[in-house]
Amino acid sequence: MGTKDLKEFDALPNAAHVDVYVVAALFGCKPPTVWARLRRKELPQPKKFGSHTRWNVGELRAALNIP
Length: 67
What we know:
The protein is of the alpha+beta class.
């Protein structure tokens, strides 16, 4: 995951998951801000995959109002 996912975000299926760096780029901030916005419930809740935290693409699109 990473910049490749950001470049291909529009092509990713809604069921895909992306990391905090992609979320930060989508919302125009840095990873610490993503975590702060998450605590304030301003972003969709991520899911844990082992030790990795990932956000669902479909939920991010809804938060960004992208059809």
